[in-house]
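Methods: example folding runs. The two proteins below were folded one after another, and each record is reproduced exactly as written to the output file, sequence line first and structure-token line second.
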Amino acid sequence: ASLVADIEQRLQADLVLPPGYRIQYGGTFENLQKAKSRLSVAVPIALIMIFLLLYFAFGKVKYALMIGSSVPFSAIGGVAALYLRDMPFSISAGIGFIALFGVAVLNGIVLISAINQLRDERGMDVREAVILGSKSRLRPVLMTGLVAALGFIPMALSTSAGAEVQKPLATVVIGGIVSDTILTLLLLPIMYLRFPKRPRLNVSTLGMIALLILPAGLFAQDGWSLETAKKMAAEAHPMLQNARLRELQASEERKRAVQMDKFDVSYQYGQFNTRLYDYYIEANQNFGSILQHIKRGAYARDLQDLRESERVLTQRQLNLLVESAWYEWLTRKASLQAVNKELARLESFLERITLLGESGEISMLEVQVFRARLASYRNLKEQQNLLYIRATNELRVITGYQGDMNTGFDDLDILPLPLLSSPLHPDILAAEEKVVQVEERTKQIEQAAFFPDLTAGYFNQEIEAVPNFQGVMVGLQFPLWFRPQRARIQQAKLQVEIARNDFEFAKKNRERERDDAAAEVAAQRSQWENYGVLAREQAEKIADAAFLSYESGEIDFFQLAEGLRTALELNIETLEIINRYNQAVIRFDFFTTD
């Protein structure tokens, strides 16, 4: 292409064509131009197909975008490799880029899949999942990139016929895979940490979005809602963090399954058999009880299952705390808004009441009575504001959220009536049941202590200055005094019985708590249907009727204020009924629903 450009420049300067004549370049240059036009269509189609396949595989746009970042990562290395080898862009290089884009996303798929699996199956927070997932997939990512790059080295170094086609393609693929592997390991975990956050749209976020040439609207900030509160509590609350740490701690137990004594090496030198000085070297290893190794491995698996069940139960308990605090906060917010609304109405009458008192149309006693009622409203506002502050602080402590709690809605919704005959959810008793299994494994470990230990050794000695008399030793070690071990086994059996009794008691207790929660839901629902609905309707009717009567002159300011006070009390009482019912439903759902 550069040669043709030089020819065109020279011909334009020195050659004047007659009218109707033109110069057309054919051969390799013509084929190159046609291929470039086809690549301008093929490359975007390939990128779109890659993005769609990633979206269908992971189900979320953000994961497709993060994995799709491998495309610019690999393009950097492909261009750099062509530059370092002093190769121009050609058709084979363009085909290499298309192939490279398909291979490059494999690293991102391996890494993102591992992180998502840790979050979904173990319930880890984002940071823990990213760290552990990156460590566990470091070798697979490196091997994926290394194997793919090594496969193209013969093509990149080819000097035989057809090398002019093979070398640019292989150079692009090798350079792109190397850069993609490095940048994926460094930047993709950072991007994973950045995207799930409640974002401030800062420069780094905009930079990553601009790199992928996609609209920033795909990462719009979520509003403050119950689901957001649950997610924040799951990431920040120490109760769940400790449950995850205990689960990680249990995962290390498998490494302790095989326990052996220290390696024993001894060296002797002296007069053993004759006056001559000889040496004696001995090495021994006690491999322990093979059966105990197996039982300890089973114990480690059951212990990890126990910690996982405890973490799941802790997640349910945390959700219970969040939901309870959330609806309590909504109730206090709605009550405070109701008081503020009525207080604003009364304060709008204060100036008129004062003028009527000064003009003599009403007595000053009536003015003082109105001021006293206004003061009682203000006192009620302070009480409701204190309850609202307490509910807000409790919700902040549970969720760790310190921003503006603006839900975007003011109404306190009543939760739907659950199926009160629902059985206990398996997660409620899973931990207690797993405790029995763990204690059973502990008993089996103690019973396996009667199985003999396996020992092996080697010796090498010198006798009368003749070296290298050697041999091996294999032996078994077993106890002759059984009484202490039998006592430990009996203790373990009793501990199993204790665990079973605890499980049966916990099962009965949880069933009783579920029944109590169901009865509470039924009672609160009945109160809502028999009184709450009517009280809400009457509150609205009393307030509307009071204003209509006042505007028509049927009642005075004081009767209006009394009607508004009655409507306000009914409104607050209705909110309390809704809150008690919602709290009962939340507790019942804790025992029964997913």
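Second run, written to the same file directly after the first:
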Amino acid sequence: MHIIITGCGRVGAHLAQFLAYEGHNVVVIDRNPNSFNRLGGTFNGITMQGVAFDEELLKEAGIETADALAAVTNYDNTNMMTAEIASNIFKVPTVIARLYNPDKKQTFHKMGIDYVCGTTLLAERIMDKLLQGNLIVLNEDPELGVEIVELTVDNASRDRAISSVHDINKHKVLSLFSGNKNIEWDDDTRLNPGDRLVMAVKEGTTRILSFFWGVKDTGDKQLSSQVSEGAKVVIAGCGRVGAQLADMLSQDGYGVTVIDKDESSFHRLSKTFSGEAIAGYSFDEETLNRAGINEADMFASVTNYDNTNLMTAEVVKHIFRVPKVIARLYNPDKTETFEALGMDYVCGTALVTRGMLEKILRPKARVLAACCNNTRSLVDFICPEKLVGKKVAWGEENLRMRVGYLERDGKLVFPSRDERFQKDDRIIALAAPGRLQKIERYARGRSGNGR
């Protein structure tokens, strides 16, 4: 495919690198030539300096024969104008725009512009993570009667072996996350409080699992699938993401306090916001105390600066011991630092890039959810020809994935490692995010990069 990307910020660069690696012809346009440094030395596409909506520049970029255009500059009006020109003048088949300000959704919709709103994606994802309890349902498949869940081990299960919960006929363990990392395990591996298990579970067996976890009822706080309404939330940062997150939580009945060093930022909060707003530095202990951090059930650090978010989240997590702490991450290059510190985070750049890629490429392998502190992704794809007849063990080893379950002829199958894949099997598997490109290439019927 010939793809034009206007804007070489973090999202544009991330998008361009992925598409070029996959063998697509990529042209990146940005008015600031220094922005192309984000592409790195391995990028093999074309870069052009100029204004995104300049028609002559777009012609030079090959827009008349382009298959897709992604308008991902930092300005909504620029993205809107570029998308309009690409769609209505040059008739590009697939045009996607990035949207910052959620208030402009209606305008984009009326103009027929397909978009990805990073602010909303990020706010909703952070809210989901904040409200998740010790039992997280990552994906439900009601027609097959199966769920993929992430469970946190409590004291009642200390020193139990995985074999005591691994039952191929009812539920299957896919991953063990312990000590801030995924670890290799077998049936004899012992569990410790705080460990997290990802499992494929037949519907209706969550009560069996709750009993295993020492809880009599799945509604118990220890194994709740959601934090109770009315809990207290403190949010650091009142930019677009922080304001939208605060409004959503406030509307749902949670007690919300927002902190920002710039008092004028509070104007972004809606008129219906019923919480508190406090001016001050989010990592300052006195400010946090004024915000009621000692009574907080949840905390989200969503300022515009990665270092501030990490520092604030660390203070809240280790000094004030708030049960649930989430940090916003801008720069994907800092992922390893956040993960090494065991910080639960949401990366807006990755969310927007994934949303753009899904609309541009319509991938064969769909990402359903992220888990284990974003170190694993749940993926859904139809068995490609290269896997037909091969054992599940072969697929798991070569694609570095763990198969959760198969849908075969409309029925649920929990496969053993000796089971062989069949044509048209639908595969639900767990894999590291870095392995998704290889799985996608297999799902498309090719094993190497290139067209």
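Comment on the second run: Residues 215-225 have pLDDT under 50 and may be disordered.
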